[in-house]
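Example with several molecule types.
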Amino acid sequence: MKNTVKRNLFKSSTIRSLALLIVLFAHVILSEVYAQTPNLTIQKKNITVKEVLTLIEKGGQVIFFYTDKDVDLNRMLNINLVNQPISKILDEVFKNSLNDFKIDGRQVYILKRTKQVEAKSKPEKKNSIISGVVTDERNQTVIGANIIINGSTSGTITDINGRFSIEAPEDAQLKISYIGYETKIVDIKGKTALNISINPTTKALEELVVVGYGLQKKSDVTGAIAQVKGVQIENTASSDIGSALQGKVSGVYIMNSGGQAGSTADIQIRGVTSLNKTTPLWIIDGVPGEANTVNMNDVETIDIIKDGTAAAIYGVKAAAGVILVTTKRGIGEKKAKVSFNTYTGTSSAWRLPTMLNSDQYVTLKNEQWASTGVPSGLTMDHIGKYSTTDWMKEMFKQGKVQNYDLNISGSNETSNYYIGGTYFKDEPSFIDNSIEKYSFRMNSDYKIAKWIKIGESLNFLYSKLNPVADGDRYLDGLFRTPPMMSVYDANNQPGGYGFVDAASIGNYDGGNPMQNQLTNQETDYSQKINGNIYATINIVSGLTVTGTFSGAYTSSDSKTINYPYYLSSSKDKETTDISLTYSKGRSMLFNVYANYVKDFGLNNINFTAGYEASQYADSYLSGSGSDAKYGLLVLRQTDISTRQVTDGEDHGTSISQFGRFQYQYANKYFLKAIVRRDGSDKFGPENRYGIFPSASFAWKLSEENFIKNISAISFLKLRGGYGINGTDNIDQYQYVSSMTSTGTGYPYGTSSTVVENTGEIASSSLANPAIQWARTKQFDAGLELGLFKNALFFNIEPYLKITDKMLFKKSLSLSSGLSDGNNTTAYQIVNTGRISNLGLDLSVTYKGNVGDFKYSLGANVSTFNYTVDQLADNSPLLDDNSGVLSAGEKISKTTVGESSGYFYGYKCDGIFQTQEQVDEYNSNARAHEHDYYCSSGTAPGDLIYRDLNGDGHITDADKEKIGSPWPKATYGFQATANYKGFDLLVTSSGVYKRDIFNASRAKTYQFGGYDYSTTTQALSRWTSENHSTTNFRIDGTDPNGNLSKPSSWYIEDGSFFRIKNIELGFTVPQTLSRKVGLSRFRLYVSGQNLFTFTKYTGLDPEIGLGSSTSSGIDGGSYPQSKVYTVGLQVEL
Amino acid sequence: MTKNTKLIIFALILLFSNACSDDFLEITDPQNPTATTFYTSLSNAQYAVNGVYEAFAGEQLYFGEIFYILMFSTGEAEYVHPESRYTDFNNYNYSSSSSLISGYYRQWYNMIGRANSVIQGIRTMQLSGNYKEDNLTQLNYMLGQCYFLRGLAYSNLVRSFGERMPSNPDYNPNLPGVLISDTVVTTREQMYKDRSSCGEVYNSVVNDFKKAESLLPISWPDAEAGKATQGSAQAYLGETYVYLQEWDSARIAFDKILANTQYSLVSNFKHNFDYKYINNSESLFEVGFNNMTNGLGGTYIYRLLALQSWGTSTVRSETIDKFSSSVVINTQTLAAALASKATVTTPQRALVDSLIRVSTPLIGQSFDSKDAFLTYIRPLTSISFYKTDGITYQPGVRVFLNAISPKEPRLAATVYTPKVDSIVVYNPKTNTWSKKLFDYSNYGIRKYIPDSVEVEDALPAGMGNYGYISQNFRIMRLDDVYLYYAEVMHNLNDDNTAKEYLNKLVRRANGLPINTASEVDLSPSDVMKEIRHQTYLETCLEGKIWFHYRRWNIANQEWAKYGYKQKKNECLPIPQAEFDSNTGMKTQNPGY
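Resulting structure tokens for the full complex:
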């Protein structure tokens, strides 16, 4: 039986009574499934109370909580009730007894009638009335906690305000207990008023986790599912939920992609699933959705399904894991609860580089041009002539972040609601870059008849983004700008931006970063409405059917205005240009599933079967025009001859059927089998459907007598399984060959005839009619061990994940004739290829207290060994990495037997220090009949590349693996502490041994191009005076290819450990806050990214994950900010 | 509600669940037509043919970077820029991993792949029986264009990547040429092939041009000018025979063009590079980019090749020297030298005076080159001709040499001369154009580079914008045919005809009647040498010299100073990426 653990837990204690609770469980019980307590029919004579409760548990899908001592389980009853709600049955059971009951969703608490609680034994010593209040770790009052005089049977429970009052001897001890919390003993010591706080047990094993189309007790799950509570991520000053999860869950590798407003995090669950892009499937309140539509503080729980057996219920797209977000509902709030939460803070850029000043610039530029000849007109002998602008200081300011949440929730017997609104604004530290989000949510459930329940989850999101003008390249512009350029110059009109006389500092072909950012005004608006409505019907006892219809409508519009400016005669723009894009998307999803539960003695079966279909359609229309007149910023006022319009559309469908069978015996053995059949529009008719089965088991050893006797072990479970998931992560229409427009157009005609704008078309990819589902097979095992009443809890999860028939883009030969005229390689989608990940996820939590000081510690570490076992034709894949060093230089290589996308280049053996050394290498080259070692221009100060094949000459054959972008391990630590009203939360995450190809070194240690500036790190360059061993010489022609050849000089250890968040809060004692009508009043300060420990010399070691075949390349994006916030949380 | 009601609802739900049938998953691409249904109308077929032409716009083709490959390693021009992927072509430092070479290789194959696909599509249309006389003729014209373009692509590939030119002493037809792909690719494995022999590729080129010749029209209406014609095919067929040294066949092909009255040299040589004179009477085939009026990007050569733009493409002084290589001592040249002495500072004036004095006794003599002249007078004087580096002329010597070397008139159309030429610059503030001296220290490339482009801004119709310009590349002109014809006739032992065709070009260059004997007519003793010289003067800085010099087996003597290596640089390397993606490709060219 499902509730045995709970019951035993309390049996073993000496508690006399047990109370119901509301507040705690309000935030763990969710989803439409929870409250479907069906009506039951019980017609039995001479049945014990215990038997009745068992019947109700089976039929009504509820869990009873009680202590045996409180309830006379053997009392005989006669019951004759047909199709009655549980409450009615329980009324019948407990009428005329000493017990009362409370139903809270699926939990039913049986307790002694309050009026019955009285001292039964006459106290020997002088008694006094002790009153007090019980609070939890968040300083919220606890309703229904048991207060017992230790060693007696006398006790009481706390009331709705968490207060109690009891008559007890002055020297007695009070024992306080509460479900999910550790029992606490307090000495009265003559006091008459007590403030008692209690700590949650380390692992709330009774919590429910979302397993897809249903819920399950965490202790019973057979797969790898991790849960993050809303409270763990709330108030993270980020617009993206993904980044808030960083470091909190083992096996989930999260890296933020940058510090721009609205930037998101890359998430990878359990290694690499495919060489093609795969992202976890996000399920929001039961239906697929997008992470960025959910407001951080509306989140109740996030369940992360890591393994294939558990994810199998989601079949398609679940191979890379599933993240299920459940938003808050009003369940259990007896009276309307109003919560208000706000924070505001500042952010500042972290570790910005120091750029050269003008004199340093002139000195280094002279070195750069020494060999090529100084470009004409250049006057580079003017040390001390120019002033210096600190461009980093000009372009970065102090950022601001603010957030306001207001929500109201409540419930009654038949319905509950949660209504909330949020405003969030983030202005990171780069100038003119911000995001604003407004979101509104309404979640409710209604029991409209005894057999039917309906409800909805609705969310509206409005966001406004002002992006940086240059996208990911915005630091590139700063690296390029010469220090002598002023930010503003009133003489340069229109605009009034500063510039340098290009001729005087060497053919400067860049712009003014401030002008670039400010004359390009783009605003992206997005409106999203999404939600679902559901109905759950109880057909017969044990059988329910749930239907959900969900829809989303997205409307986005973007307006870009480019204002005129003048920098120089060749760097100017005369007109005001407008471009507009309107796009919309709609999607619908319908699913229906039936669930049947039945018990046969100690056997329990649970069967789910369902069907799901979805479709979406997106389209956009975009127009642009230049020379807007009359100062009006609308398209219709632009010059008609310049107006252009374009459009696009896209649609897709999917169909699935699924079934799940669960069996358990005696709460010890659990079996689960899932099969899902998915249809995808991406495959041809013969290959359209895929069937994905999985099977798993769990064995709760702690229920076995031979473990029960070991008192230290409070929980022990072994689980394992095997499952197959499908992936269709490719573009549509790859199974038919199609023609595409080549885009450039080819003209005919003479100069005297009008040139025709002739359409042109060609096929550019090779269709593969045979493509089918990629299959990811996962072997998953787990050991969960709780010690000392679960104060110490271990989770050990090894897995093996193999993706077979992997779908990826196989580059076609250059001679295939299929590609456009640019550097994009033609490809064919193929199903060949296999990759495997052998991994281990570990986590441990410990919870303890020293008096009133309560603390918890958590740590997790994940590691995986990832190899590519097979590729199409087993020929290597080289990712283009266009523009990383020199265009076309390929840095990331994937070959069989290695992990994908490793760095491929030359190993550096230091720097040539003397001409003799160079001559020696060159003479060795001549001994092998080559003219020279690397290049005719190789000279002291150049990198020494390792001659791998020993032919004395550096060629492509000397390239090898020089680093791997995949970390040896990722890890995270969390700590919480509470003392009196204070609370502290620290979360951190780290990456161990990840190589980063720091391509930005070419711009920070050297001049990134002929007209680039650089940072003061370049002062370490090799010169004939400064024989540097770490940085090479500055040379305009770069004959040795130091700047263009990928080499280990660019490889750095990207390991880092970062304190992601520190939050210190103080909750005003309720006794005080009550006086102003508040049930909770909490103030907090927090800091994000305050401390980072790394040897990395680039901007930020936390760079996005990139793609599977090209990861870990740092081109120099804006580092994440340090954020300081102060916040306030108030509840009425 | 009764139990029955609930069961009915349940049944309805189940029914609804199955309402979506399998064809729910059958969706079609709203954006792109499928290949199988595409070839159903003449206009669609024409779009596909346009797509074949469009392959010319590849980045490493006439978008612009082809010139880096073809013009820098010949010493015609030089690129000054830190990026080695470009500068590698200044000094033969490129390897099989060069992204420029792989783009150049791939983009010619794009043209071939598209042509194959269109040929198959049009044949299907022709066989369908749905098209009658006129339409069938149109379809044949389209087929002819596809064969022509495919032949052109193979011709460029085999001349660039084939192990040896047929004229090379080491050539035999079995040497590796390039991979031949002549059908529509449907499977990946189908592409896994090694290179065919040079002989096979040249045969295929000849066959394609022959088919094209038989299918193409003699001319197009003005609005369709630029499409390949019978003349285009004949010119390239003739060229191919020249490469194969099949002189009689070449002559037959060229004779047809010479007899065709629609072709004539334009009176002004410059017009061959002027965007206002595209598809003129001299053009046999042009690559079209005159499309900027339609809001499409033109060619990017302004940004890539114009001096003092992105990086610096400069014309080497060796190129300039070729235009003034003969030294003629007469009173006129000495007077010019005297006049130009004013441009040099005092100590060097003495140098000019001395040289005039030394040279005066030589009036009436001419020398083949500056070096020949200097060698002759070196014993007669104590003047030091070179600076201490031994390579660079003393400034006064340079002035003297420039003055006594007659300028070839075509130079002005070929390069921008620093401090002499001017360009027209647009001033956005006043919205006016004004002349500006070409105030740089190096010669700039002028062919195809208009003198009135303002790089960063939108300009009047047809002209540049952000480095893009509207311009057509006249890759086969009547002057090319004349040069080939001269060579053919020389090899057929008819030097008189050969000289006549060279002289037509010289007369045109000097603005004289083309078909009338004139005072500038040449009478070279070494006709082949003059053919080479005239080919250079007529076609340098167009990407043609790289082919000619290798064909004439003079590459080593001309380019060794830039790093050219015999046995290796006679061809480009097959790109490494081809070996990486084509498991059937086995043979790399020697030396790479």
